[in-house]
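User: Before I run my own analysis I want an independent prediction to cross-check against. Here's the chain; please return only the structure tokens and, at the end, one sentence I can use as a sanity check.
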Amino acid sequence: MVIFSFWGCRDDSLPATAEFRLVDGTLLTARVRLSRRARRMRLSLDAAGILTLAVPAGTGSALLEQNLPHFQPWLERVWKKRGSGLPRPHLPSQIVLPLPGETFYVESANDPLPARHAAASARAATLLAVEGKRLLVLETPGLLRVFGAPDDAALCAHALRIWCRRKAAVLLPPYLEGLAAREGMTVTHTGIRDQSSRWGSCSRTQNAPSGRQQPSGRINLNWRALLLPVPLLEHLCLHELCHLLHMNHSPAYRAELARRSPHWTEKEKALTRAWQSLPWWALPVRA
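Assistant: Structure tokens:
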């Protein structure tokens, strides 16, 4: 039998998490995610051992509570088969950002009160993530401290993704736009996105005529690009910039990319490998 409980309710009255207790006494926590695409409730277990319960928009807590027992047979079966052999997710010991050349060691603690006092420091940057709990991420030079939920790996990972995306929003646009200027192009807007299956995307706002006007357009970069080694990040940006000239992957596009990014085929494969080897905390969370 699965015994469930709710804790950490959000403003919309849905819980941020749901706890399941298996017949052997194992207590499992699933993160509740609202999904506009979901037509029914769906419980999933990822490779890192994290449970996510996707619920359709408009679902109330009463309906959610009513449906949770339906997941009992599946969860008992899957956890018995896979759960015991899955490593317990934990925070990374460090996060490396190659572009600015920074390494942040990561620590977690339960009591956020010391962090609130430390946040008054001019050197500190704070992030408050609310998902049924109040989480504080305190950034000081070379150190990230996550306060509020040290035992909730999924929630801490969510906070780290928010922190990293905000860093990407500061660091990636000027880097891309500097490369564009070097290559004789103009980026009218750089968006930082949370794409689930691609490093970036491009839309052209100005064709590339044979005259004087520079090709221009909008480019979106996945925030995870901030985790790439700088040579791969440069290639990714050049890949998207070349789409301002050719909005396809035609021979002309490939020739342009080869001219601007030598050994581009090897770098494309390296980008694929980099995506496949993303750390668990940075993986896209699928609704």
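Sanity check: The domain at 168-276 is CATH 3.30.2010.10 (Zincin-like).
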